[in-house]
Design goal:
By secondary structure, this protein is of the alpha/beta class. The chain contains 16 helices and 19 strands. Strands 7-8-10-9-13-17-14-15 form an 8-stranded mixed β-sheet, with helices on both faces. A 6-stranded mixed β-sheet has the order 1-6-5-2-4-3, with helices on both faces. The chain is elongated and about 80 Å long. It binds ligand BES, manganese (II) ion (MN) and zinc ion (ZN). Manganese (II) ion binds near residues 259, 261, 336 and 338.
């Protein structure tokens, strides 16, 4: 797996600036005040830094912006990165500064003189999250990644504070790797193996195979995987860090390792993007990893449905009627509306088996949510104002966009079928909402539930706030924050 870059924390020692290799970063306030480290860098560079902060260009800089002085005179470093940051910077501004550093870093070593920064952990998280690259399948690009060193006021304290943030970063990277991985490598079996390896972190892992899924009556999920040579699976990850007997929070993910559309085949253009259709399951796995790594004092269970949606002589046909684990029958009008079929059975199983205090499912469920919200926000659908408010607050504080969408009976009525209890599509209008209504039919009334449609945010073709273009890991930080703020004891 792609590991986050290693980060060291040291006492401030401005005598190290001249000889440091790779890149050196100093922090300067918008009004151009130089701290001891910046004054030393200025002296070494014969006043280059002072010229920069007295220039008009500097006046235009905002919190978190970066200016590079390349190959600075008097220093061994290849670059002197100057970060604009007020002393009173807000957490997201500090993270933004970190992101700018992480982007500039590339594979070089980086020394950050952060003695003045009030939130060095946010700075660290920004650097680490942005310094990600998926190089598994690049044969030539195996250059070693240079370390990050932060010189801070109290390195011992900061190091232990940063441990939780680095656990979350590792969860985010785990998710990004899964989402980036092509479907010939990330088969259902490989996905289950990567989850199973997390038993070393203290998670209890159960992999349910096709015969067990059949016995439990999960025919909706199985109907999606029928056409594929890869076996369908449900993987369960249990973290028991809370009080014994307390009902867990359940996280549920759509794990379609590739979505061809099935017999309702998708057009060729862009079909390669459907390698990310396991994004919901990827976020659940990454969040469980973060929760386990930082030993959260909460009970959380993650369940993912792993299937591949392929056309073949064994594949489900449009018009087929299939019975869900709940017992309701579904007329499958369009085999490309497969995610909801997978989730319906996993949601039902989660409630029957784990009696959760709440459920959050994540899925790259509809193209319609991209039409509605673009790539800035995931769609939030819920039957409960408290849990959705808590989630949106958690997402906002982590800088991950999330926007509440409406639900209601009129939308639900669009799922009526002539010959079965419901059909799996509701027509073109309100496509992401009718998908959510379909899921809600498999949620018990007294179970607080959120459906997150992450089709627009799981993988993006341009750089995003914390990630280079490609897989973002959206949701790992928000879920981790929600668990920390609302589900942990003490
Ligand atoms: N996996 C897709 C949704 C999707 C689209 C994810 C674009 C990421 C980017 C999902 O299974 C799907 O095919 N949905 C259909 C539903 C339709 C057939 C009712 C869609 O959105 O077109
Ligand atoms: Mn589909
Ligand atoms: Zn899909």
């Amino acid at each position: 797996m792609t590991s986050p870059v290693s980060v060291n924390f040291q006492d401030l020692d401005i005598d190290k600036i001249a000889g440091a290799e790779g890149r050196v970063a100093v922090i300067v306030t918008p009004d151009g005040k130089l701290d001891a480290a910046a004054r030393r860098a200025n002296k070494l560079t014969k006043g280059a830094l002072a010229r920069l902060v007295e220039s008009e260009a500097w006046e235009k800089k905002k919190a978190g912006d970066l200016v590079t002085i390349a190959w600075p005179t008097g220093m061994a470093a290849e670059a002197l990165d100057v970060i604009c940051l007020p002393r009173s910077a807000k957490p997201d501004e500090v993270r933004k500064a970190g992101v700018a550093l992480g982007k500039a870093k590339g594979k070089s070593a980086l020394l950050v003189l952060a003695g003045q920064v009030r939130r060095p952990v946010d700075l660290t998280l920004g650097i680490v999250l942005r310094a990600y690259e998926f190089t598994t399948h690049k044969t030539a690009d195996k250059k070693e990644d240079g370390d990050v060193t932060l010189m801070v006021a109290k390195p011992g304290e900061i190091k232990s504070e940063a441990a939780a943030a680095l656990a979350v970063a590792e969860g985010v990277f785990f998710t990004r790797d899964l989402v980036s991985e092509p479907a010939n490598h990330l088969t259902t079996t490989e996905f289950a193996n990567r989850i199973a390896a997390m038993k070393d972190l203290g998670l209890k892992i159960t992999i349910l195979e096709e015969d067990e899924l059949k016995k439990k009556g999960m025919d909706l999920l199985l109907s999606v995987g029928h056409g594929s040579a890869s076996p369908s699976k449900v993987a369960v990850m249990e973290w028991k860090g809370g009080k014994k007997g307390d009902a867990p929070l359940a996280l549920i993910g759509k794990g379609v390792v590739f979505d061809t559309g099935g017999i309702s085949l998708k057009p060729a253009a862009g079909m390669e993007d459907m390698t990310m259709d396991m994004g919901g399951a990827g976020v659940v796995a990454g969040a469980m990893r973060a929760i386990a790594l930082r030993k959260a004092k909460a009970n959380v269970v993650g369940l993912v449905g792993l299937v591949e949606n392929m056309p073949s002589d064994r594949a489900t046909r449009p018009g087929d009627v299939v019975t869900s684990m709940k017992g309701d029958t579904v007329e499958i009008i369009n085999t490309d509306a497969e995610g909801r079929l997978v989730l319906a059975d996993v949601l039902w199983y989660a409630q029957e088996r784990y009696k959760p205090s709440g459920m959050i499912n994540l899925a790259t469920l509809t193209g319609a949510i991209i039409v509605a919200l673009g790539h800035e926000n995931a769609g939030v659908f819920s039957n409960d104002d408290t849990i959705s408010r808590n989630f949106i607050k958690a997402a906002e504080s982590e800088g991950e966009g999330a926007w509440r969408m409406p639900m209601g009976k009129a939308y639900d009525d669009m799922l009526k079928s002539q010959i079965a209890d419901m059909k799996n599509v509701g027509g073109r209008s309100g496509g992401s909402i009718t998908a959510a209504q379909f899921l809600q039919r498999f949620v018990k009334e007294d179970c607080p539930w959120i459906h997150l449609d992450i089709a627009g945010v799981a993988s993006v073709k341009a750089d995003t706030k914390y990630a280079p273009k490609g897989a973002t890991g959206w949701g790992v930080m928000a879920l981790n924050r929600l668990v920390a703020d609302c589900y942990e004891d003490g």
